[in-house]
Amino acid sequence: MATPRPSSSDDDAFNIVATYRRVLAEDPDLTMPVAAIESLIVGLANTPSTTVSETLDLVSKLTAQLKSGISNPISLSAGTDLFQQYLISNLQRARGDFDQARNHLVQNGRLFVERAKAARETIAGFGKHFVRDGNTVLTNGGSRVVGALLRNAAESSNGSGRGSIRFRVIYVVSHSTTGNSVEESETAANIAALRERDIPVAEIPPTAIAYCMDMVTSCFVGAEGVVENGGIVNRLGTYQMASLAKAARKPFYVVSESHKFVRLYPLGQYDLGIEQNIVDFRTAKGSERGKKEAASDEGVADMEGEGVRSGSGSCTPGDEVDYTPPRLISGIITEGGVLLPSAVSEELIKIWF
Amino acid sequence: MVGQTPSLTTFLKSLKQNDIETSIELFISLLKRRQIKNSRPCAIATTHLLLRVVAEPKRKWDAQKLIDRVGHVGRRLVAAQPREMAVGNIVRRVLGVIREVAERDEDSLTDSEFSGSASPITGEFKQRPGLPTRFSEFSPLHGAAAMPHNMHSGRPGTADSMNVEFGGTPQRPGLMSSNASYAGQGPSGTSLFSILQHPQGRSPLATPPTGTQSPAMGPSPSRRTTGGEANEKLDIKAEVIDGIKELQDELDVVDSQIAESALDHIHSNEIVLTHTSSQTVQKFLLTAARKRKFTLFHAEAYPNNHEATHATILNGAQGEEEDSDERWKPLTSLGITVILIPDSAVFALMSRINKVILAPHAVLANGSLLAAAGASTIALAAKTHHVPVVVLSGVYKLSPVYPFDTDELIEYGDPSKVVPFEEAEFMNKVDIVNPLYDWVDCDLVDLYITNLGGHAPSYLYRIVADHYRLEDVDLNAKQDVAVKKG
Fold first, then answer.
1. Domains and CATH numbers, chain B
2. Can you tell me the distance from the alpha carbon of A64 to that of A54, in angstroms, rounded to the nearest whole number?
3. CB neighbours (10 Å) of residue A141?
């Protein structure tokens, strides 16, 4: 509001990274892409702009700031990309109606959130199709939408409250010493909710996945981002679970809202464009990585608006992700139905081209 | 129909005399008694019945009423025999036709509020039909003039697995545009924009930008070139009847269209393995046999289809009409060596086989298929020996159903075919099952050939999306809503 030009000093007026964190913290049910859209809308509202290109410029600036301010921007970039493409496709068409279009966006931030949550509910509604009597389901927790899907399956009955589907759940729980408390409490809440509904839940450490695999009928995981080739980026350990499921010929389903589709084409684990300090080679003199970073990271550090980054460019423990290639995925359950991994690129093509 | 076993032919004859409700009941009982069975007869009977339903005299339909009516009839048919997926497929196709006609109608009547297919699911779904998916305009299935037909052959998976080259087939473009497959207007499926869309109705803002395509190329007028009707109120009934007739035409020509690619797949001196007495496969092989010599191993599909298989090998496949005695020439008369083998010999022979050709009972949305029992053995053996598996299937067999539980898709038949009832002692001591179908996973199939051309299994979702509306995929979901409302 202070600076009409989103050029040099809008950091002072509006801090997108802080807004993003605040939005995410305020509503634990919010996914990262939606939080990113929310923050961009707040940014748009705070910074008056009168022309289309000015708005687009502002949004791309804010997006760049946000991405550089967050250690793992894959998931949120799904939201920012979606928003940017939406703006481009709408604002440019709405020649006379620029103000109306802009106002629509600014005023309906809440509505987007509601829709995103409705999408999750829709997905959860598919649960009863996937989970059958006598099934044993393996999941790696932490995902709200998987939790919702399983809860829905547990409840699905003729409205009597107690579910009619008898199934069991194996939750992979990693009790990391460094502890990502938000994630862990979420997992605990999911497990408690299922047990509350008379669904037997077992908690196993990630090392026991292979041991359990023979009794599992299907696996469900969430995703931080669904990438262009139909693979997913998700919490560390997902790739390994998918590999084991494939080896045991068990279906491996990804449960994800379609706003998590992100235009990224990773060729492998180390091609995600984020720095992760997972493999840390050390000698008696210390970490090899430390030396390299000191040399290369200086230039990058200047570009970041402020030092909001957690750590020096690497993810905090508990936040690491891996990439699961599409060949391991049986299907992606979205609010529009069950997609094959190969259908993801088409959805992305629809909005980008 | 006195003195005749009820069948597809008698049913089609009786359609003209009976009133609609009687016909529906008759079809339901025929389905239940399995006197009409298998995909093609079911599909044909369904189109004829729905044609009668739509053409009901003295009824004036508006779109919504027609959708309700067809949906209601469709649900009864599907409930009668849920495993005959062709019935459900045809019902969905017809619903898609109605929706398309309704939308075209609305398009021509300016932008009045969209009510044609008030989807019960959520508010945002309501807008989706209005959102033209630009991709599907480019899709080869639409056969739009702007589309270079080479794109169709360029599916990497297809070409790699089978060395197919369609591109050169000169008649293909014509085919695509005239009578390829009657797909409804590209259903939008899910748009990623859905959470951002304008909340009130269809906003002019809510359409993607016009890029290379001009707005005039939009979904409505380009597809069916009936001409200057776009400006007047359409006669829904007539339009839908036309649509259903196109569907019937498609069912008539589907085998010939599939057979057109035979020469691309069957090469000289190849050894081909097939299974059951499928008309589609026979036609395909006959077309190839006119030009090329190959050897055919024919697994006999005991105990459910072996008699028909033997008859096919000996006397040729039965013609189009189920009951007529007219038969096509047997392959042997064209100089093809046909070797009949029991199903149990499949694995042993697989190492000598160059190509496996299967005919499915139904193809599911994720690329897996249901076929006569024994198909899974063949597909697994082929996988083990790295022999390509080609599945010949009309689009009408392609179902949007996702195989949540494969066990419940399998139908079990008469156990006395395995062990006859005379052997009562045997019957008392053991359980005898006779599964009619096998489920074959999608990664065992290398190529699907439909009347639209060849597709990798991973591409089938696209064809499903082009032929069925999202709203119609779950026919019963609507019923739930209706029950709740009522």
1. 260-455 (3.40.50.10470)
2. 15
3. 22
Mean pLDDT throughout B23-27? 91
Suggest the residue from A34, A80, A90 to mutate for an interface test with chain B (most B CBs closer than 10 A). A90
B247 residue type, one letter: L
Contact B209 A92 (CB under 8 A): yes
Q: Which residues pair with A334 in a beta bridge?
A: A337
For residue B439, give the 3-state DSSP assignment.
strand
CATH of region A120-266+318-352: 3.40.50.10470
Three-state DSSP class for B341?
strand
Nearest to A32 by CA among A255, A184, A223, A230: A223
Residue B28, amino acid? I
Half-sphere exposure of B385 (CA within 13 A, CB side): 19
Cα separation, B42 vs B85, in Å, equals 9
Of B122, B195, B366, Cβ closest to residue A112: B195
Measuring CA to CA, which residue among B215, B179, B360, B161 is closest to residue B275? Answer: B360
Distance from CA of B242 to the nearest CA of A (A): 30
User: Is cis: bond before B204, omega within 30 of 0?
Assistant: no
pLDDT in tens, B443-483: 899 999 999 999 999 889 889 888 998 888 878 765 554 44
A90–chain B nearest CA distance, Å: 5
**Which residue of chain A has the CA closest to B458?**
A342
Tokens of B67: 């959708």
Average pLDDT per run of 10 along chain A, which is 353 residues long?
43 76 84 87 82 84 88 86 82 68 75 84 84 89 84 70 77 71 79 90 93 94 92 92 94 91 90 84 79 51 41 59 93 87 87 74
pLDDT (0 to 100) of residue B46: 93
Residue B94 C-alpha, separation from nearest chain A C-alpha, in angstroms: 21
B261-282 tens-digit pLDDT: 999 999 999 999 999 988 899 9
DSSP B92-142: HHHHHHHHHHHHHHHHHTTT----TT--SS-HHHHHGGGS--HHHHHSGGG
Question: What integer best gives the mean pLDDT of chain B?
Answer: 75
**End-to-end CA separation in angstroms for chain B:** 40
> Could you give the CA distance from residue B122 to residue A88 in angstroms, rounded to a whole number?
26
Length of chain A as a residue count: 353
The minimal CB distance from B205 to the residues A94, A108, A118 is found for A94
Strand B453-455 relative to strand B447-450, pairing: antiparallel
Secondary structure of residue B295 in the 3-state scheme: strand
Domain residue limits, chain A: 10-107, 120-266+318-352
The residue among B247 and A87 whose pLDDT is bigger is B247
